[in-house]
Amino acid sequence: MSKDSTRRAAPLPLRRSRSLVTRLTRLNLLVLSLTLLICFVLIGTSSWYAARDRQVQAAELSAGLLGNSLAPMLAFEDRDAALNEVQAFSRRSDLLELQVLSASGQLFAHWSSDEKRPLQLAVSPAVVATLGTQSQIRGNEFDVWAPIKLKGEVVGTLRMRESLQSLLQTVWQMTLLATVLVVLAIALASWVLRMVQRAALRPLVDLAELAEQVTRDQDYSRRARIERLDEVGRLGERFNQMLSRAEVWQADLSQQLRKEQLVGQQMQQLANEDSLTKLPNRLFFQAELQRRVAHSVEHSELMALMFIDLDNFKTVNDSYGHDAGDEVLREVSRRMSRALRSSDVLCRLGGDEFALMLPALSDQAAAEQLAGRLIAAVREPLLVDGRVMPVGATVGLAFCPLDASDAAQLLARADTAMYAAKRAGKNTYRRACDASAA
Q1: Cα–Cα separations (whole angstroms), residue 147 to 27, 53, 89, 140, 278
Q2: What is the rounded CA–CA span in Å between residue 372 and residue 394?
Q3: What are the residue boundaries of the GGDEF domain, all occurrences included (predicted)?
């Protein structure tokens, strides 16, 4: 071996190696500390605002749901039921105050965690009725105002005040814990960096040379030689290339998975939707009826099921064609849907048969009145290509848990009631109890 080769292969002076170790350790710690500090501030700030906004959004959604429950109580001035509903809702841990106002602005129901605190209304009911749900953050509290609507008409206003104190306390606790962990991590990193870089810097440079030779020549018999200590950066470049490729592959895979998930959701929606009327189909109805009947029985809540059959629909198909029949089905679906509450579920079972689920009824008369309105809506003159279609509707009505506490039995009772209405002359409705008596 020549003297020149021996000179190049000789180890570097120890003082220079230690100087580079110290410098690299300080630079790494500085970059790490600044990065952690910036990330800590950004993540902490964004987490606070995101959590706060999520709590406000959750409160707005809860206010809307509560408003739907309170709407019939305001309409019928049932203060006792409204107070019970408010008391049940007040179990929310962060709730400070809840007010229910009538359409005229009078206090209808109220709950407060601090009865001595005066009531405040920063937004008038008229503004809420015009602009819809509003929210305002004030320090560690926020207010939510939501209109209470019944069939599209504003019947009152709901005002809810919640505290952000528990959320703020949680954020501070997480901040303190994260601070301790960051300090410990930096201290540990300082010690580890000194030990690792002092002991392993020469092998890393040799490994960088080896990576270059293997990449270029594919010769695994070569060995690395220490030339310069700053060659460790070349190893980072190679690893960065691999990481970059892995990131691209992962991004492609994630995008493909998202596309497949979206396709799956679309297929699920198509599986539960009637292609002609865009109403839920029989498959959806069977599962939903099971769920709603179980909920009605478990909570002793009155619900109704209507089995609706169109009269003279076969005549329409035979006399005017299937295109006219399809248009009749679409128009009848639109008419019936306009007469329903937001919680009611209208489904097309197939052909000219429909089913309607009415949850959370106040009494049986409400369902009977709705049956009359549906029949009247269908009987209004229906024109297709300028010709009046001779269609009507016959309805069978069954109640859960009065007539049946099982989904299949409830559907059978409603179907029997519908045939009783057919025998009574069509364009009318019959209840399951009336059909059984007959």
Answers
A1: 59, 20, 17, 24, 29
A2: 10
A3: 301-434
Handedness of CA 365, 367, 368, 372 (dihedral sign): positive
Tell which wins on pLDDT, 337 or 200.
337
pTM of this structure: 0.43
Q: 436: Cβ–Cβ under 8 A, 6 or more apart, which residues? A: 413, 416
**Domain map of the chain by residue range?**
12-203, 282-437
What mean pLDDT do residues 289-299 have?
Answer: 93
CA–CA distances in Å: residue 250 to residues 204, 255, 258: 28, 9, 12
Residue type, 50: A
Q: How far is CA 260 from CA 252, 254, 269, 302, in A?
A: 12, 10, 14, 41
List pLDDT tens digits, range 30-45. Answer: 877 788 778 877 887 8
Instruction: Give CATH superfamily name and number for 12-203.
Output: PAS domain (3.30.450.20)
Six token digits for residue 122: 């920063």
**Does CATH number 3.30.310.170 belong to domain 282-437?**
no
If 0-12 CB within 10 Å is exposed, 13-18 middle and 19+ buried, where does residue 16 land?
A: exposed
Task: Please report the pLDDT score of residue 338 as a whole number.
Answer: 92
Q: What is the 3-state secondary structure (H, E, C) of the chain?
A: CCHHHHHHHCCCCHHHHHHHHHHHHHHHHHHHHHHHHHHHHHHHHHHHHHHHHHHHHHHHHHHHHHHHHHHHHHHCCCHHHHHHHHHHHCCCCCEEEEEEEECCCCEEEEEECCCCCCCCCCCCHHHHHHHCCEEEEECCEEEEEEEEEECCEEEEEEEEEEECHHHHHHHHHHHHHHHHHHHHHHHHHHHHHHHHHHHHHHHHHHHHHHHHHHHHHCCCCCCCCCCCHHHHHHHHHHHHHHHHHHHHHHHHHHHHHHHHHHHHHHHHHHHCECCCCCCECHHHHHHHHHHHHHHHHHHCCCEEEEEEEEECHHHHHHHHCHHHHHHHHHHHHHHHHHCCCCCCEEEEEECCEEEEEECCCCCHHHHHHHHHHHHHHHHCCCEECCEECCCEEEEEEEEECCCCCCHHHHHHHHHHHHHHHHHCCCCCEEEHHHHHHC
